[in-house]
Amino acid sequence: MDVLLTGGAGFIGSAVARGLVGAGHRVRVLDALLPAVHPSGRPPRLPNGVEFLRGDVRDRAVVERALRGATAVCHQAAMVGLGLDLDDAPEYCGCNDLGTAVLLAAMARAKVRQLVLAGSMVVYGEGRYTCEQHGAVAPGPRRTADLDAGRFEPPCPRCGEPLLPGLVDEGAVLDPRNVYAASKVAQEHLASAWARVAGGRVTVLRYHNVYGPGMPRDTPYAGVASIFRSAVARGQAPRVFEDGGQRRDFVHVADVAEANLVALEALSQRDPGSVRCYNVGSGSVHTIGEMAAALAAAGGGRPPVVTGQYRLGDVRHITADSARLREELGWRPAVAFADGMAAFAHAPLRGE
């Protein structure tokens, strides 16, 4: 297979590139080398045989050039993270949504009909919750007064009683609760429209909290794992927001790369015009506090400090049911939480 890999110089993209080459595919990487991710302006070392093209997915001419000879696209290019405030909205929508639209239009012209899209669990907003009295319910928006008072658990919107968090599956109603999440929902809708009009085949991989070697350092757009990892490396205590009880699914980047590989190789078996979404999670639920403690212990650093601070755009609990990916494509995560965190505590980060 001849694969165009957008964002292939990034944290996840470079792992995907290694996996594709290892499986015998030909790979061309298109990456803009954004300063927030690549402060040196230089791409990482990519596997032998990978063609690298520097350019932005919003540039029609560059994308058309990158698509020459491609039979499939693995679209990883995106601006990621929660961001700082609404001033980031134009950049998120430009990078993620305009970039995806330019890419899809070029794919339609080039008659490239296979796409794996890097999605995100943020499209769900809060995860799945049940109330003892009212069953499955969707919590309302988080209220500043509650958060200021240290009431972080969402109450039942009908009776106000505590809710029990559970696993969310791919059939859940999408409920983006910040600008980044909204941009990822828009990417999925654009890809779905393209599939129907162009007869394309789309697989959306909704990543959960990805971590591993090569993560960007602690910028405002970095993931919480790299922020904690950077603190440990500096000899500082990781600072945990809220009470540390936020539930997440931490999945290793090597397992995410493998999910992309099996998704690409299964595309040709799908019907034209089809879209299929898959959660990509380890299946192991841990709290933010547990992750911080595991990194601090493995790195020989100071124990985490729970701050009570919060970000209004965050969600309390979001964990995935990844059974569909396991059952339909035979994917299995290989890196256990304890092993992955122990190694990550000493792994190099991007920019170090």
State the main characteristics.
4-stranded mixed beta sheet, 20% strand, alpha/beta, globular
Quick take:
With 352 residues, the protein is of the alpha/beta class. It is built from ten helices and 16 strands.
List the helices and strands and how they pair.
Blueprint: E1 2-6, H1 11-22, E2 26-31, E3 51-54, H2 60-67, E4 72-75, H3 89-110, E5 114-120, E6 128-131, E7 135-137, H4 144-148, E8 164-168, H5 179-198, E9 201-207, E10 209-211, H6 224-233, E11 239-240, E12 247-252, H7 253-266, E13 274-280, E14 285-287, H8 288-298, E15 305-306, E16 319-320, H9 323-329, H10 337-344
Parallel strand pairs: 1-2, 1-4, 2-3, 4-5, 5-9, 8-16, 9-13, 10-12, 11-15
Antiparallel strand pairs: 6-7, 6-8, 12-14
Please characterize this protein's 3D structure.
With 352 residues, the chain is α/β, with parallel strands linked by helices. Helices cover 33% and strands 20% of the residues. The protein is built from 10 helices and 16 strands. A 7-stranded parallel sheet has the order 3-2-1-4-5-9-13, sandwiched between helices. A 4-stranded mixed sheet has the order 7-6-8-16, with no helix packed on it. Strands 10-12-14 form a 3-stranded mixed sheet. A hairpin with a 3-residue loop joins strand 6 and strand 7. Helix 1 (11-22) packs across helix 7, helix 3 packs parallel to helix 5 (179-198) and helix 6 packs parallel to helix 8. The longest helix has 22 residues, at 89-110. The chain is globular. 48% of the residues are buried.
Strand order of the largest sheet: 3-2-1-4-5-9-13
N-to-C SSE series? EHEEHEHEEEHEHEEHEEHEEHEEHH
Share of helix, binned: 25-40%
Classify the oligomer. Answer: single chain
* Termini gap: 34 Å
The profile of the biggest β sheet is: 7 strands, parallel
Number of helices in the DSSP assignment? 10
Class by alpha and beta content: alpha/beta
Could you tell me the strand content as a percent range? 15-25%
Low-confidence stretches: none
